[in-house]
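Final report, closing paragraph on structural work. Over the funding period we assembled a curated collection of sequence-structure pairs, and we close with a single example.
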Amino acid sequence: MRAQLLKTPGPIESKPLTLTEVPVPKPGPGEVLIRVTACGVCRSNLHMIEGDWVANGVPGKSPIIPGHEVVGRIAELGPGVSWFKPDDRVGIQPLWSTCGHCEFCLTAREQMCNSAQITGESVDGGYAEFVVANALHTYAIPDSISDAEAAPLFCPGVTAFGAVHKAQLEPGQTMALFGVGGVGHMVLQFAALTGADMIAVARGENHLKLAERLGAVRTINSTDVDAGKELAKDGGVDVAIVFAPSTPMLRQAIAGTKKGGKIIVGTFTDVGPFFFPHQKQIIGSVIGSRWEMNDVLKIAASGKVKSIVETFPLEATDEALRQLKAGEIEARAVLTM
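Its predicted structure, as stored:
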């Protein structure tokens, strides 16, 4: 099969990925082989490929095939898998497997399992024509969602859903989103379902216009003003959700949140000095459980949220990542096979 292989991390401009022929993997007990039709291109893929996370042990093996939001058709069932059949349309998310018996797995917080394997980071992912998946972490996809639109649901979708769930937004509250892109455009759609008023903060006009289309009542271009000061002028927001990988943006989000408010953070940043008497809560958020993933698929199948995608062939993976790095992707890039 053809696959984009990462041997040595480096700047995307140096083309660290190699499109090459590798053997089609075989599914083991409890696994399935998926013929990939679409795979989303995530900023965390870019971080791994460029070597930003090497100190954290990512990638977990070398060489590795990146890609963790995958859609395709069942090509082969491993021993013990009886609830799928060949040609079923399925998807997998970053959470490739978990132990199933720790305190996190037993309390619907399995994304924090210390034994979790991560698709495309510790096991091979979906930048390829075939991928092996853990059948217990494989999801049937409703017919009403196309392959390209389904792929981002398996990372931006469930990640956004989890962040909005933690925010506990209510009608009449205000939410400021910092970072409109792959995850951010899904945050706006899930937040809209709560009845809260949405404010979008971003650096690019293309992202701010996208936010307006998705229902933001106000947009702030952070290249022109300090968004934290702007929000604080009006008393601050009830909740800030941060998916911009920027320490200044996180600190502006904290400053622009009212006393007692919440800041949901889904990216690596530096909080800096924290004025505890204001009793603000900073809450980390990462992907979501299988229960949440199934909820995301149901909501998307109903037409209440929709991924906005730009498609690229597998051969153009470098270009998709370059455009993502340059901020040229409006929402989500998706590789199609």
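The chain has two domains: 2-155+287-336, 158-284. The longest strand covers residues 31-41. We thank the funder for supporting this effort.
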